[in-house]
Amino acid sequence: MKPAKFDFVRAASLAQASQLLLEANGAARLVAGGQSLGPMLNLRLAQPRLLIDITGIPELTRIEDDDDAVTFGACFTTANMEDGRFPGRGLDPLAVVAGQIAYRAVRNRGTVGGSLCHADPAADWVSTLCALGAECLFFGRDGRRRMPADQFITGAYENALQPGEMLEAIRVQRHSPRGRFGYHKICRKVGEFALAMAAVCNDPEREQFRMVIGATKRRPIVIAHASELIRDDNTLDESAVWRVLVRHGITDRILQRQQLAAVMRAYDQARQP
Fold first, then answer.
1. Domains assigned to the chain
2. pTM score > 0.90 for this model?
């Protein structure tokens, strides 16, 4: 199929993009990499009257490298992350995750912010950024605001953007020298969407031990205090993980086993010296 008819405009600023969104009253969509929106247009799952290209807005490709965190624009691509064009000091796992996403052609165009806003439950960046405690920075008609990534994702393909609002940037805190990150996903073959996935951020110096279970067909399961799932001998309490899965509505036995396997492997990575 081919997309339904739409108009196209290239926004020159955040304010212009926000105003266009407001004027369209829900009939406009932002486009950057288009790796998710493009197929939706072709299948007519999305039929906006207006597409707003935001790739030329400088704020959306900026990088701010601070002592304790990195803030990068929402249009920063997955390929740029993979290729080391990101100040990875304390955030090296991001490049590793980027290299496991789909195929190089998709990574060349796909943006980190676009993936987060699309909120696909099986998307790598959704689980990764929630596990790292990333913060989302927004621009809208009422100015700027911010929100933790795990609160921004409200459901499968649902987020907390308000009318006329757009994701401007993402802020991620650096790991301390003792910080460890683990990530594992289970797919039928490389490049496909995950059947199960888990991300673990363990940073004792920052008193952060978070675990995220993704690919749940709903919003990620975020366990802010993952130490509750660890036994005294520092091994994973599998029964506790089972209970978490059941509590969040995952009752299919095959999916439960896949998710448990992903959690175990991610945790093993996060406890490596």
1. 7-53 (3.30.43.10), 58-173 (3.30.465.10), 180-270 (3.30.390.50)
2. yes
